[in-house]
Design brief:
By secondary structure, the protein is α/β, with parallel strands linked by helices. The protein contains 22 helices and 18 strands.
Length: 604
């Protein structure tokens, strides 16, 4: 387990170093949550800067771009503290790190037009290097004439066997190379082979006549030898038949072939693996590439790469998923089962559309089917936990890690209260009336103090529902407590309560800007915030743009519903955008936050 990451002088992390206590686990999807601007990319950059023997941070990635500073990355792995600096990398001996991000780089093109040169910008997708050194094409040498000459008299009984030209057969041979090499290491085993050859040498006649005279008993001593029997058990399916002679003919040729082609067989197998890998990559890219660009692998300067067109020549969704999959394929080639691995996916999921999120999950699932006890899979995201828990991975597979010191945690009481209104039957007169009263007086701004506790209690079904929240005074007190937690950075806050408080605050500001009580009453009677905003605009109050930004958040939050059949809330992902630091700054301005606790006066 990784229990601490400490970073110094890399991007947003300065000196003193930033220490992050966490728990990264193998065999889990570690999802590291943090709002934008809180250091996720700095963390990814730190790990991406690791070289085999050092930490090399480019100037633009140094803290304040000051390359005179000393950068450092430190992790605590299984209680051992491992440090990487420009002089050393203790992490590399224990952990292989691979970082995947969007992969876009800016570029320019020049167009010469007489005396003038036009320079236009474009967004390029970095080539993905899959294989740094393409294995050469090598052909192991199988010449039956040489093998027959080695056999001696009656070598003519050895057939030219097509299996020795089979690439899959070469893979089986290499896999059993130690066994084959060990056969002649004991002189006694070579003597047993020579005795069989000597017997066969005494025979005369054509090939078929010689074969017909061979006594199966001549092979008894060989077949009582353990090493010979092991070789026979592995390769017997490649013999012409089940006789002892057929096995001997195959094994004799096999031993000669391996002894004279060890290096060539290994190189040929590497080439075969490379070609299969390239076919595998191209098949996957073809499935994903629906553009006329026909994205595929290319051999360039002895390397295998995936070259992409300029980003503006393919769709954003196509670009994102193809880039992600290509990099996943590259990671797959780096896997060494003798070492632990850390795969960091930096906000890739945050920008994929729904269909490509599913495709990305599919590739993750398929590609990571090796020893997951040796893999730290880390996804950096500013999305909310709900998105991953319900959409991408099963909850049991996820390890939630919060890099930021606050967590949006919806309370069951607040979810029950909001969903109560949403689930009221609009066709029932009593329930419809209560829906309208709650909407008019509690879920939207109204300076009038109300009490609907009795009405709510009469229809209560969810044991988490608090009927007392039907009082203006009680509900506003709850909301202000949560907005104070949110703005002051308390560890846990209720995002639904914050969103409702934001709505009331926005509408109160609009209410107070209207010049007459008649106009104010008219705004209160409008349904939905967007209609209230239009009403104010039509009556001379120009809405600040930030009202539209936060409106998207609180509008979703206040329409939370409950599925009684599945006993779960249909959560609204948008509410978790409150974690974004820009959004938090907007909310602070709305409430005129100065660091002191707010009172209900701001929403009453």
């Amino acid at each position: 387990m990784i229990t601490n990451i400490t970073i110094k002088n890399i991007k947003g992390y300065g000196d003193p170093a930033t220490s992050i206590d966490l728990e990264l686990k193998t065999n889990k999807v570690n999802i590291l949550y943090a709002p934008n601007g809180s250091g996720k990319s700095s963390l990814a950059t730190a790990f991406a800067s690791l070289l085999p023997r050092s930490l090399k941070v480019e100037k633009e990635n140094m803290y304040h771009k000051d390359d005179t500073l000393e950068a450092e990355l430190c992790i605590t792995l299984d209680t051992d503290v491992l440090v990487a600096t420009k002089e050393k990398n203790e992490i590399a001996s224990r952990l292989s790190v691979y970082v995947i991000n969007a992969g876009l780089t800016p570029g320019t093109t020049q167009h010469n037009m007489g005396k003038f040169t036009s320079v236009s910008g474009y967004l390029d997708i970095s080539d993905v290097e899959l294989v740094s050194s393409i294995p050469p094409e090598v052909q192991p040498i199988y010449r039956i004439t040489e093998i027959r000459r080695t056999f001696g008299i009656n070598g003519k009984i050895l057939p030219n066997m097509a299996v020795f030209q089979d690439r899959e057969f070469w893979r089986v041979i290499e896999a059993n190379g130690r066994l084959l090499t060990s056969f002649y290491q004991a002189k006694g085993r070579k003597q047993l082979v020579d005795e069989v050859i000597a017997h066969i040498a005494t025979l005369k006649g054509r090939e078929d006549i010689v074969v017909g005279q061979i006594d199966e008993g001549w092979f008894d001593s060989l077949e009582n030898n353990d090493v010979y029997c092991n070789i026979k058990s592995v390769f017997s399916k490649y013999a012409d038949d089940n006789t002892s002679l057929a096995s001997f003919i195959l094994i004799f040729q096999l031993l000669f072939f391996w002894d004279n082609n060890k290096d060539a067989i290994r190189k040929a197998n590497k080439r075969t693996e490379y070609e299969k890998y390239r076919e595998h990559v191209d098949r996957n890219l073809l499935l994903l590439d629906l553009t006329w660009k026909q994205i595929h692998t290319e051999e360039t300067n002895g390397k295998l790469i995936v070259h992409f067109p300029q980003a503006d020549e393919i769709s954003n969704g196509q670009r994102d998923i193809v880039t992600f999959v290509a990099k996943m394929l590259r990671f797959q080639t780096s896997i060494n089962n003798g070492k632990k691995h850390m795969l960091i996916i930096d906000e890739v999921f945050d920008y994929l559309d729904d269909a490509n999120v599913i495709a990305a999950q599919c590739f993750l699932t398929n590609f990571l089917k090796f020893d997951t006890n040796k893999l730290y899979l880390c996804i950096l995201t500013h999305l909310n936990p709900y998105t991953f828990k319900n959409y991408i991975f099963t909850d049991k597979k996820i390890n939630h890690v919060y890099l930021f010191n606050t967590q949006p945690t919806a309370s069951p009481e607040m979810k029950a209260f909001i969903s109560f209104r949403q689930c009221l039957d609009r066709k029932d007169a009593v329930q419809s009336a209560l829906y309208n009263k709650l909407s008019h007086d509690l879920f939207h701004y109204n300076p009038v103090i109300v009490d609907y506790c009795t009405d709510i209690n009469a229809l209560k079904q969810n044991h988490h529902l608090k009927p007392t929240w039907g009082r203006t005074v009680v509900l506003h007190s709850i909301l202000i407590d949560e907005i104070n937690k949110y703005l002051s950075g308390v560890a846990v806050y209720d995002p639904y309560a914050v969103a409702l408080a934001v709505r009331l605050r926005v509408e109160k500001i609009m209410y107070e800007k209207l010049p007459s009580q008649e106009l104010k009453d008219g705004m209160v009677d409008e349904c939905m915030t967007k209609n209230k905003m239009k009403y104010c605009a039509d009556n001379g109050y120009e809405m600040p743009e930030v009202f539209n930004i936060v409106n998207a958040i609180h509008n979703e939050a206040d329409h939370l519903s409950y599925n009684a059949t599945e006993d779960k809330y249909i959560e609204k992902p948008m509410v978790y955008k409150l974690q974004n630091r820009s959004i938090q700054a907007i909310v602070a301005r709305l409430f005129e936050w100065r660091g002191n606790p707010l009172t209900t006066e701001v929403i009453d």
